[in-house]
Amino acid sequence: MEWPVAATRFASAAGTKLPSMAGDPSSVLMALGLDREAEQLYFRLAPVSGHTLVGVARLVQERPDRLLRALAPLQERGLVTFAGERVVVPPLAEVVSELVLRESRQAATSAARLGELAGAVPHLVAAATRPDEADLSDIRPLDGELSAGGDPLELLHLMLRTSRGDMLWLRPDAWAMPRESKVSTILSEAMAMGRRSRAIYPVRALTEAPEALRTRASLGERVRVMSEVPTRMFILGDTHAVLPEPIGFADSPRVHVRQRSVVAALTLWFELLWSRAAPVPELESGGGRPEERQFLLEQLMAGATDEVIARKLGIGLRTVRRRISSLMSELGVDTRFQAGVEAVRRGWL
């Protein structure tokens, strides 16, 4: 970028109006929008920087009031400032550097604002995508609400009393919540009345919260695990679904949906995840500590590194390598590829 062109942009960013010129400006100051008279004044002031306005006026042989008016264009560009009654003339490089910084900040702010506006466009278009009222014969609101606060346990009690059918849960981190034991009590009461429960956990729960999984399984809940569970959610029968807004791990605000078609769509999504999740036979049989055998085999077949497996399980790298080595010994193989082949042969995968 040519120096005069850059300075012209900086002057524009500072809110100055540049004079019309037949050709390129002949100096940096003229590129910043100053005329020849203001440029000459700047160079007359530079050697006397730090004096009072009255003193400077005397040195440059101007009346103080006329000098103050003449300083206005220099002040606008930061070429002259006042420290109390003293006139300060910063170095020219410092002034241009400040203009560069101001320009970059304005550009960043504009870019962020444009990004926000661009993100709003799809929502604006979606809100306007509706049929004309003249084309509609029946208009009713969707059944549900977005809410925050209240007593979640009381809400769960109420939904259980007003619903029938299976209880479906996505539980990415629920075992760490303080009310987990109370939720298990509610679940136990519902299952005692003949209701069934299924839950999907992230595979790291096998190491982080084996007792919580064992407790739920002991109540009769069917448990499966997968690498990652994308959000909290629970569905009660075909009439209630609750999930965070936005999707994720927040507890509030939450969307409570009772619209049957939406509940059905969320149920279909849960069933898809359930089909991809891995069962934990040790929990279903009421046995000991859950193993990650199937998960490890799936990860080995997918070519995942030990580091990736450790991160997904939430355990140390050495522990992962030790368990993989033990699994290979159990299968009687020497390589990871052979482990996959043997696992398929035995029906483990």
Structure, briefly:
This protein has helices at residues 3-13, 28-31, 36-45, 53-59, 64-70, 72-76, 92-128, 152-161, 180-192, 205-208, 210-218, 260-276, 281-284, 293-301, 306-313, 317-331, 336-346; strands at residues 81-83, 86-88, 144-147, 167-170, 197-202, 222-226, 233-236, 240-244, 254-257, 278-279.
Question: At the third CATH level, what is the topology name of the largest domain?
Answer: Endonuclease, Chain A
Whole-number mean pLDDT: 81
Strand content: 5-15%
The CATH level-2 architecture of the largest domain is identified as: 2-Layer Sandwich
Overall geometric form: elongated
Distance between the termini: 62 Å
What does the oligomeric state look like here? single chain
Class from secondary-structure proportions = alpha+beta
Spatial order of strands in the largest sheet: 3-9-8-7-4-5-6-10
CATH superfamily of the largest domain: Endonuclease Chain A
Output the number of helix runs. 17
Please outline the major beta sheet: 8 strands, mixed
The portion of residues assigned to helices is 40-55%
Mind telling me the C-alpha Rg? 35 Å
β-strand number: 10
CATH level 1 class label of the largest domain: Alpha Beta
Order of helices and strands: HHHHHHEEHEHEHEHHEEEEHEHHHHH
Number of domains: 3
